[in-house]
Amino acid sequence: MPKNDELLQQPRHVPLVTTENDSLPTGPVATRDHEVIRRWAARRQAEPATGEATVSGPATADIQDGGAGIRFNFPAVGRLRPITWEEWFDNFERHQLTFVYDAQPEADGSLSPRYRIVKTGDWPGQIG
């Protein structure tokens, strides 16, 4: 991911959370907790997906994401190849990734679908 990523620009420090609840700070937050990520996805009807070739199937899209290789499919949005949560989290752990998402609701009050999956080591001092 490029270092000028809008979701990670402000604030300079993104808090690391281990629970998703109504008392989260507004703005970007980060987590490596699998259950927080699953709940985030479920609340947005997002499903684990990839565009890259894996043991479960061929490449379906050229994704320039710095090597994360995993994404989410959202209802009515371009489809990547669905994968299991097990495969998604295997990739997440193997590449030492962190899930950064926007805890700030959209202007209409709906849940923000904005997220980034970043290599944890690429953001020293900014996430945590």
What does this entry look like structurally?
There is one protein chain. With 128 residues, the protein is α+β, with helices and mostly antiparallel strands. The protein has one domain. 19% of the residues lie in helices and 20% in strands. The strands form two sheets. It has a three-stranded antiparallel β-sheet. The relative contact order is 0.25. The mean pLDDT is 82.
User: Mind telling me the C-alpha Rg?
Assistant: 14 Å
Question: How much helix is in the residues?
Answer: 10-25%
Main sheet summary: 3 strands, antiparallel
Strand order of the largest sheet: 1-5-6
In terms of per-residue confidence, which ranges show pLDDT below 50 for 5 or more consecutive residues?
Answer: none
Q: Class by helix and strand content?
A: alpha+beta
How would the global form be characterised? Answer: globular
Roughly what fraction of the amino acids lie in strands? 15-25%
The tally of beta strands, per DSSP, is 6
Number of helices: 3
Q: How far from one another are the termini? A: 18 Å
Write down the secondary-structure element order. Answer: HEHEEEHEE
What is the mean predicted local confidence, pLDDT? 82
How many domains, as an integer? 1
